[in-house]
Amino acid sequence: MILPIVLYGDPVLRKVCKPVDQLNSDIKKLVENMFETMNTAKGVGLAAPQVGVPIRIFIIDPSQYEDEQNPDGKDLLKSFKRVFINPVLSEEHSRETVFNEGCLSLPGIREDVKRKSTITVSYCDENFVQKTESFEGLPARIILHEYDHIQGILFTDRINPLRKRLLQRKLNEISKGITDVHYKIKLPAKTKKITV
After folding, report:
1. Rounded to whole angstroms, how far apart are CA atoms 184 and 2?
2. Tens place of pLDDT per residue across the chain (196 aa)
3. Is residue 54 within 8 Å of 48, Cβ to Cβ?
4. Which of 101, 111, 126, 146 is catalytic?
5. Which of 143, 131, 148, 154 is nearest to 59 (CA)?
6. Which CA distances in Å does 92 have to 98, 152, 162?
């Protein structure tokens, strides 16, 4: 089932999400619905609070960037679909890189964001099996973006304060549902002027 994506201004996007105690049919169904929702919206990642559920789950599937290849010619992002339940970021290292990010909850806004290029994260997969893995490049960036969501952080919190002030009008419009999107959305609970 395709779920509505919560727009900027909804308090759920600012909550530090709660851990998942156990894998059950509701969690499995939520993950399935999140993939369907993300794919319909043409996203590469989606966190549970973006569909109004404040729990520590996010998914990624950057296969639309499959043409990015590593130096030996193997597809870097092919079949990189992942479910992260109760992730814990244990390490961010290497140099910072800049990439132009967007977000399904902030449609029409794209900004350059600095993030570390290599990370290590512990998490449970879709079968609730505990894993610890290191990621680099675009997968690391997507994971960090989605991890921010379950911490109540938006990518606009990581940009230059002047750029953020310049976006104020657009952010207020999004919080009122004034946006042109091709996917199902949920307006914030209270539509009021949002100050960044």
Report:
1. 8
2. 999 999 999 999 999 999 999 999 999 999 999 999 999 999 999 999 999 999 999 999 988 765 544 444 445 555 689 999 999 998 877 788 999 999 999 999 999 999 999 999 999 999 999 999 999 999 999 999 999 999 999 999 999 999 999 999 999 999 998 999 999 999 887 544 434 3
3. yes
4. 146
5. 143
6. 15, 19, 26
Cα 16 from chain centroid (whole Å): 14
68 classed as catalytic: no
* Within-domain flag for 16: yes
CATH of residue 96: 3.90.45.10
Whether residue 81 contacts residue 47, with contact meaning beta carbons closer than 8 Å, is answered with no
Asked whether residue 156 is domain-assigned, the answer is: yes
* Number of domains making up the chain: 1
- Phi, psi dihedral angles at 9 (to 5 degrees): 105, -20
DSSP label of 156: G
Question: CA of 69: how far to CAs of 63, 73, 77, 82, 169, in Å?
Answer: 12, 6, 8, 19, 38
Is the pTM above the cut of 0.85? yes
Question: Does residue 152 belong to any structural domain of this protein?
Answer: yes
